[in-house]
Amino acid sequence: MSFTDSLVPLITLIALEIILGIDNIIFISILADKLPVEQRDKLRYWGLGLAMVMRLGLLALLSWILKLDQTLFTLGTIDFSGKGLILLAGGLFLLYKSTKEIYHKAELGDDANAPDTTKATFRDLLIQVLILDMVFSIDSIITAVGMVDQLWVMYTAVVVTVGVMLVASKPIASFITKHPSFKILALCFLLIIGMSLVAEGLHFAIPKGYIYFSMAFAFLVDFIQLKTVHPVKEKK
Length: 236
What we know:
By secondary structure, this protein is mainly α. It contains eight helices and two strands; from the N terminus they run H-H-H-E-E-H-H-H-H-H. The longest helix is centred in the N-terminal third of the chain and has 30 residues, at 3-32. The termini are far apart.
């Protein structure tokens, strides 16, 4: 296949990877808020940089990745594969973290906005980022394998996607931090992603288009509310 023939699959894969990578950016941004300001960029860059290394490494182990789709055991009518178990574990972890953060923000009020330096260390948060990186990376690689069969296309898509995520991570993080209502919305988004990962691990796949459309609509409503409420406050 010529370069021209590979261009369309490459662009399509990059676009898909960027959409899937939004989950990762939101998760890292919310965790970074627990650190002092001077360490937040470091966590984002380390988290996304290690995500790229992990995905490139997994591509090198492509034959092993493909075996993760094979059934390991069956419970009732549900077949469990390596991929399914990883998605289940990642989904449950994401459900736990997002639920805990929503409780933290909703119940502790304004104090929840302050960096939690006594309970959260850079190392602990980076480990949590790596756990989700592993889940999203394996899902991403299997998706890529289903779309293209050329390794260079997959490698290029991974590098370009992480580059875009690195550039976009700070503006997204700053926006979420500045507007608490969007932080709750982002946590709800992660909650839905966690539920979808669990469902996919149990072979009840929820079309991602439904998820992203509903969250985009919720984001639009919140954005309109932000623009209409703030001018009223300023007039008062």
